[in-house]
Specification:
By secondary structure, the chain is of the alpha+beta class. It contains 19 helices and 19 strands.
Length: 583
């Protein structure tokens, strides 16, 4: 979505008034949100990661960013409503700059000989931000809670590999003790799966796998993440939450885990609509250029052109590979999309290269499969022949399906999720609309919907044809192939597309311990998905960010980029360099 530029001076006047009339943990102007100073506290300093030689002093270790205000921080059951501050909780496993597993709350983990049980050994001495020990019982409670059918967790299906999880979440059994999650002792947590599950540790690294403090949840219910009640287990704790304005985070003085942090304070300034948080922007470039924030996402091709032509800003522009795919999906069990030839025709009638070049100015890459380049097992070049732009073949397929020149084809709507006509996705949909009319002679209208309504109807398989994106949650093909495309009952997965051979390959890959063999199984599965056009793949994203010169500590990935992902350990590695002293 194209962000509108506007002045944020009224925002800061309101923030100043709020601080004058509400209590704060700091004193005086040095604690105003956005100010690059923080009062250092001895207990917090003891938990801090030692600063590198080129770092600014501790009181200057303040990072500021814009994000919409979350409606909750209860990320394990309300993922969509709580994004933007995932660094508040430490999962059993965490991921690094290459999306590889590293220790989190667990120091190590191993799989049983039969592949059905993973055992995690927790870090001794770990503490919640109120000083309570972090134990395996906390994780047992968390997993049982996030799978409870009344939790409202839209990502519960993500955990269906766990023994008994599907039956419990779908109310076929009501006993949580039948779930394959248990604390063996205070520092040993075991997860048993229905079948051998080679990627299970990646599931534990997923944002929604964040632990919750049982005593706070049972005392306050859904309001346990509010100010004065929120208890976290990472290097950070919630400090302030001034509704409509900002929230701040400071070091957890009790943290003694695997991922201590340099930054002494993180300031999340609110913008946009509640419940759509993003750690990297969505507010335009003006706050960044005014020095109000240290990092902002860049999504507009027009902004990219301006930045590239600006002598100062061009040196602060960073690019890295995204791990998401945008595609068209269909209601494949009803006409006209129950005919694979119709789906194939639409896939071949979309000129993805023109969309990438003319509309996105090279900010995206054409997609020919579900997995983007540099993702494990990427086979896009081999798959390219299946959904490459080919107008003549597309027309022939439509004629064979009984719609020559579009004759007799019903007028349908492409449904979009929060993508008004002026947005990039909205403009892309208009280009697709024009291409399908010109090449196939079919008329499609465009309908834009609010995200929550769209998601509900998508899971109920009520959308005839839609355009949507999906991002990898971990660096294993299961995340992009198995999770969104393996058949599940209505209401528990995005799409109605069903292919028995695809399902079998995904199920076999799930438990295959040999990595090379797993990649072969996933490649064959993706070939079926692409040839049968479960989705017509459009583009993979690049990520662009403006970062102030004093943001240090980000690590280079295997592709040569310096990624900034909300759910990896960037917040514990990042620090403010001495360049901030000259600002």
């Amino acid at each position: 979505m194209l962000a509108q530029k506007r002045s944020y001076l009224p925002f800061y006047l309101n923030g100043l008034l709020a601080l004058l009339f509400t209590s704060s943990c700091g004193n005086g102007p040095s604690d105003l949100p956005g100010h690059p100073f923080v009062e250092t506290i001895p207990a917090e300093e003891a938990a801090a990661r030692p600063l590198p030689a080129d770092a600014a002093p501790p009181e200057r270790q303040v990072y500021r960013y814009f994000s919409s205000e979350p409606s909750s921080l209860d990320v394990s059951v309300a993922l969509y409503e709580s994004l933007g501050s995932a660094f508040l909780f430490e999962r059993l496993c965490m991921i690094d700059e290459n999306e590889e597993l590293i220790p989190g709350a667990a120091d190590r983990w191993e799989r049983s000989p039969d592949g059905r049980t993973w055992t995690f050994h927790l870090h001794p001495g770990a503490r919640w931000s109120d000083g309570t020990p972090v134990t395996a019982h906390d994780f047992e409670y968390t997993y049982k809670r996030l799978l409870h059918p009344d939790s409202g967790n839209v990502y519960a299906f993500f955990y269906y590999d766990i023994k008994g999880a599907r039956a419990y979440n779908q109310r076929k059994t009501g006993d949580p003790d039948l779930l394959g999650v248990r604390a063996i002792d205070d520092l040993t947590f075991a997860i048993e799966t229905e079948e051998p599950c080679a990627y299970l540790p990646y599931v534990t690294s997923y944002t929604a796998s964040s632990p919750v403090p049982r005593w706070q949840v049972e005392k306050y219910g859904r309001r346990w993440t509010e100010p004065g009640r929120c208890v976290s287990n990472s290097a950070y704790r919630l400090d302030e939450w001034v509704q409509g304005k900002y929230m701040t985070f400071r070091l957890n003085p009790y943290y003694k885990g695997n991922n201590p942090a340099h930054l002494r304070k993180i300031v999340r300034l609110f913008s946009g609509t509640a419940g759509t948080g993003s750690a990297s922007g969505g507010v335009g470039l003006l706050p960044y250029e005014n020095g109000e924030v240290d990092l902002v996402g860049v999504g507009s091709p027009a902004d990219l052109d301006r930045i590239r032509n600006d002598p100062e800003l061009s040196g602060q522009l960073w690019k890295f590979n995204g791990v998401s795919t945008v595609y068209l999906f269909f209601r494949t069990r009803e006409p006209p999309f129950d005919d694979v030839r119709v789906r194939q025709a639409l896939a071949r009638a979309v000129d993805k290269q023109t969309i990438a070049d003319a509309l996105f100015k090279g900010a995206v890459r054409p997609a020919y499969g579900m997995r983007p380049p540099n993702f494990p097992g990427y086979a896009g070049e081999r798959l390219k022949t299946l959904q490459a732009f080919d107008p003549e073949t597309a027309r022939q397929l439509m004629a064979e399906a009984g719609y020559p020149g579009g004759k007799g084809f019903p007028v349908l709507e492409i449904w979009l999720r929060d993508a008004p006509p002026s947005s990039q996705s909205g403009q892309a949909a208009q280009m697709i609309q024009e291409q399908l009319l010109e090449i196939l002679g079919i008329r499609l209208e465009i309908r834009n919907m609010q995200a929550n309504a769209f998601n509900q109807l998508m899971y109920e398989w009520e959308i005839p044809i839609g355009m949507v994106g999906y991002g990898a949650d971990f660096s294993d093909p299961q995340s992009l192939l198995g999770v969104p495309w393996r058949s599940q009952p209505r209401g528990f997965t995005r799409h109605d597309w069903h292919n028995a051979r695809f399902n079998d390959l995904i199920d076999r890959a799930r438990g295959e311990p040999d990595r090379d063999r797993r990649m072969q199984l996933y490649e064959e599965a993706e070939w079926i998905l692409t040839s049968d056009v479960g989705g017509a793949f459009l583009w993979h994203d690049h990520r662009f960010q403006l970062r102030k010169p004093w943001l240090k500590g980000l690590k280079q990935d295997r592709a040569g980029f310096y990624p900034f992902w909300e759910n990896n350990t960037v917040y514990t590695e990042m620090y403010i360099g001495r360049e901030r002293l000259d600002d």
